[in-house]
Amino acid sequence: MSFSNIMDSNSYQGGQLDDPLIAARNRVLGPAYRLFYEKPVHLVRASGTKLFDADGNDYLDAYNNVASVGHCHPHVIDAVTRQLSTLNTHTRYLHEGIVDYSQRLLATFPDPGPGGSYQIMYACTGSEVNDLALRVAAMHTGATGIIVTEEAYHGNTAAVNAISPSIGGRTSLGPHVRTVSPQLEPAEIAAAIADLRENGFGVSALIVDTIFSSDGIYPDPLVLAPAVSAVRAAGGVLIADEVQPGFGRTGAGMWGFSRHGVVPELVTMGKPMANGMPVAAMVARGDVLAGFANEVPYFNTFGGNPVSMAAAAAVLDVIEGEQLIANAAAVGGDLRAEVTRLTAENPRIGEVRGAGLYLGVEVLDADGHPDRAAARWIVNAMRERRVLISVCGAHGNVLKVRPPLVFSMSDVDRFVAEFGEVLASLAE
Amino acid sequence: MSFSNIMDSNSYQGGQLDDPLIAARNRVLGPAYRLFYEKPVHLVRASGTKLFDADGNDYLDAYNNVASVGHCHPHVIDAVTRQLSTLNTHTRYLHEGIVDYSQRLLATFPDPGPGGSYQIMYACTGSEVNDLALRVAAMHTGATGIIVTEEAYHGNTAAVNAISPSIGGRTSLGPHVRTVSPQLEPAEIAAAIADLRENGFGVSALIVDTIFSSDGIYPDPLVLAPAVSAVRAAGGVLIADEVQPGFGRTGAGMWGFSRHGVVPELVTMGKPMANGMPVAAMVARGDVLAGFANEVPYFNTFGGNPVSMAAAAAVLDVIEGEQLIANAAAVGGDLRAEVTRLTAENPRIGEVRGAGLYLGVEVLDADGHPDRAAARWIVNAMRERRVLISVCGAHGNVLKVRPPLVFSMSDVDRFVAEFGEVLASLAE
Question: What keyword terms does UniProt attach to this protein (chains A, B) (predicted)?
């Protein structure tokens, strides 16, 4: 019930009606539309890690994970244009694109064990595939109880909204949902399981973003494996929501779950999958998927279409060709080290956490408590210096630094220089 | 519980494992994936109303409404490529694209009356916006009861699956859903309202595809207005699902609901909106949207992004520039007249129904009953003659003819010639 993650702490509604574009926007878009920053950014073009406004000022993008292989990457543009000029239909006709891409994607996955091989279903958004994964898990387990972390965000359909405590507002969690801390303490998991059983829901799934981003970015310690064992013993499955950590962001392989030594029954992915084209997928162990997929004639009109597959394949090409996972590890490590060094003696900065190119920086008040207002101030001060970041976490006080994977060492230098200036202003 | 619409009657699972592409596809995609036609079509390129296989054979597309302005339309390709090469972010930054497009789109809508002006929210699929519309309606009305037609299909999220009786299988309708015939008889509507009230759900919305396509295509008589009046008197709203009839398909203006003389509180749209790019939208009367949009921080990552808006704007350009609504009226009228003439004396063909470029043709057995097997046979025989259609309706016996809006008079001639040959074979 916190409005704490991307949903609110760095977004602003209405206001600035003297800007004719904002005034026009407020007339035609519903009031759910918010803008980032007290002084919104009006961008007109982008390239790599840079975004540009109409005056030609460049902004360093330290926030956007969708343009994962860099804004306007020519290889992705070429692939989309070529396929769009050739054929774009749907999966009820045969096409090599979906088969070739699926084979490549599945080759990045571990052996799922005796439950048979992984299979894929495509959709357009992370919300859609999380919604689907809940249905698949329910059909397989015969149970509906879901365990999520206390600030989880898994999407915006009715079903996934009901398992997303970070949304808050009048939209409450479903009665079949129990929350646990991102530390996944064994006692919490046991209590959630017991309570779901007592209330007749049973245990369908534990669903986690394996870098716990909306909870505030908790990459370590690696506490997932024992929780998964307990959930499985209770009849449930693991849904790894890789929308945030997937496709190499953590610098430790393609998938966040691998860092935790677990092999999920269901894996969902989206945002960075096609560098901004609306592409998402659910990977499922064959035996877990069978019950749903043989019974329900699910069809997604745009999911897995030839253009989506061409875009997604181009993203894989770039991740491999430009060695972006190694870059996430190296540059992300450098970023974390530099920020840690810069803030080591600063009482307003707490933990600096992260994995690869996903960094969380705690902002505290003079008494060492979470300081949402100061975090917001830093985000806006960084925006004034043309460096784009945001916030996350239960208290809205964790700076979220999550740049495109092509972030360079010189981008780190620029980020750290500006961050140093902003922190100096905060201390004054 | 019929599996009757696009979901099943013209789709085939597995099979043909001697085709290496099908075998590979069956390994990597889940078993929910089906293929059209007994002998699936393997397409490699497309243009206008023609699809081509690897041997260069051309297929006449009389089925695909997504590529509404024609396959691979150069204006849409140019718009997407240009924007993809410039900037593709999200709606938390200011951008002219979403404001300009929204103004153009809303200009095609009627005055919504005293409830204030219409506003828009964007997503990626029709399923997402129908899911959203249900939430908006529930928040506004304080009720959850939904009235749908008996073979309705509104999408594939958990919430819209629960209001889609055509899905059938183990996925049942929700307890808050009542079905009525596509004739929307006043007594049926009254009974549904009474039953929803008695069971404590109240009346949230009547949701209809205004051409009743999965019900079997019932464009006339125009029975919607009295049903809407009854639903409104019971506190509910009208959700017009324009995924099928919208964007000029009926030949009578942009929106299917206009033909019925009603002005909906909520309108959803998708498939043809961006000619194959995953773009969808919900248009809502401001007073109906306010409760939800002020409370729930809904955000859709890809929804309304600059590339989606560029694609959608290009589609509007083409609809206007090539006068495709007038084309749908003229060519659709010709198609219907020709098919009516061709089949007038044929006892195996019942009603020929439609509006604009959406035609339904009933297939009957010798006793005048719906004949699903014969309809399936016709669809496959047409495919052998390289004309692509499908089936719909409660009995799976209504041929569904729904070509791109650029269908020409010579396309009609080709369609009618092949259809005549197929009907002659059926009669033998």
Answer: Aminotransferase, Pyridoxal phosphate, Transferase
Question: Same structural domain for residues B51 and B109?
Answer: no
pLDDT digits (tens, 9 = 90+) for A389-425: 999 999 999 999 999 999 999 999 999 999 999 999 9
Quote the DSSP letter at residue B369.
Answer: S
Residue in B33, B77, B89 nearest the CB of A91: B33
B134 interaction partners in chain A (CB closer than 8 Å): 158
Q: Pick from A94, A134, A301: which is nearest to B22 by CB?
A: A94
Asked if residue A151 and residue A108 are part of one domain, the reply reads yes
The complex scores an ipTM of 0.96
Range A33-52 average pLDDT: 96
Residue after which a domain boundary falls, among B281, B299, B321: B321
pTM above 0.90, yes or no: yes
Supply the pLDDT for residue B18. Answer: 80
pLDDT value of position A114: 82
Together in a domain, B209 and B285: yes
Q: Which of A10, A41, A80, A87 to mutate to test the interface with B (most CBs of B within 10 A)?
A: A87
What percent of chain B is predicted at pLDDT more than 90? 90
The residue range of the domain holding B24 is 11-69+323-427
Angstrom distance (rounded) from CA B256 to CA B129:
17
Q: Show the CA angle centred on residue A265, arms to residues A264 and A266, nearest 5°.
A: 90
Judge whether residue B12 has pLDDT over 80.
no
Q: Is the sign of the CA dihedral B233, B234, B235, B236 positive or negative?
A: negative
B167 contact residues in A (CB cutoff 8 A): 296-297
**One domain, residues B297 and B237:** yes
B171 and B61, same structural domain? no
A69 touches chain B (CB under 8 A): no
Res. B221: pLDDT tops 90: no
Question: What dihedral do alpha carbons B26, A210, A6, A349 form, nearest 10°?
Answer: -160
For residue B262, what is the domain's CATH number? Answer: 3.40.640.10
Contact in structure between B223 and B398 (CB atoms under 8 Å)? no
Measured between beta carbons, the chain A residues lying within 8 angstroms of B278 are: 124, 277-278, 302, 308
Whether B254 contacts chain A with CB within 8 A: no
Contact with chain B for residue A71, Cβ under 8 A: yes
Chain A segment 23-42 residues within 8 A of B by beta carbon are 24-25, 27-36, 40-42
* Chosen from A10, A83, A85, A118 to mutate, greatest number of chain B CBs within 10 A: A85
Q: What is the pLDDT of residues B36-53, one digit of tens each?
A: 999 999 999 999 999 999
| Any domain includes A3 | no
Judgement on whether residues B292 and B144 belong to the same structural domain of the protein: yes
Alpha-carbon span A129 to B38, nearest angstrom:
29
Q: How many domains does chain B have?
A: 2
| Residue pLDDT, tens place only, B377-423 | 999 999 999 999 999 999 999 999 999 999 999 999 999 999 999 99
